[in-house]
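From: lab user (bench 3)
To: helpdesk
Subject: output format question, protein + FE2/S2 (inorganic) cluster

Hello, I'm new to running complex predictions and I'm not sure whether the block I got back is the full result or only part of it. Here's what I submitted:
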Amino acid sequence: MTALYDEIQQVAAQYPQRRSAVIPALRLAQEAHGGWLPPAAFREVADALELTPAYCQSVASFYDMFQLEPVGKHMIEVCTNISCALVGAQATLEAFESELGIRAGETTPDGEFTLRTIECLGGCGWGTVVSCDHRYRHYVKPEDASRVVEELRHAEH
Ligand code: FES
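Helpdesk reply: Thanks, we reran it on our side. This is the complete output you should expect:
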């Protein structure tokens, strides 16, 4: 058995029903596969929890935190929901697009960055909220894009 299988068994042991561990198991699988869930990941999670790959994929496809396509080493997610939109989220998003040379939903050719829009991150009073490698930054303005990208580029991952 693989290390991932063993990790999933440990998580599953914390739940009365093994299938309840599907979300943490998918998170583990995503980490193991470099930040996204290829078809093999669904088979591995399904085998470990005695589910079907289709069920695991259906769960993953519902949640924004699971990636169904390859992603860059760093993930920049700009909240564009209403509260952030009212304080300039679109301009902030466009600044990141310009800085990275890609559009939202794309990954840079060197595989370093993926840029996405994302639904409300729960920090509506502190917009624009931008999640950088899953850490939230508040009050992000267009002029911050270049500095944020440089910080991430030099950050340990
Ligand atoms: S609308 Fe952006 S954090 Fe809520």
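A quick orientation on your result: The domain at 3-62 is CATH 1.10.10 (Arc Repressor Mutant, subunit A). Let us know if anything else is unclear.
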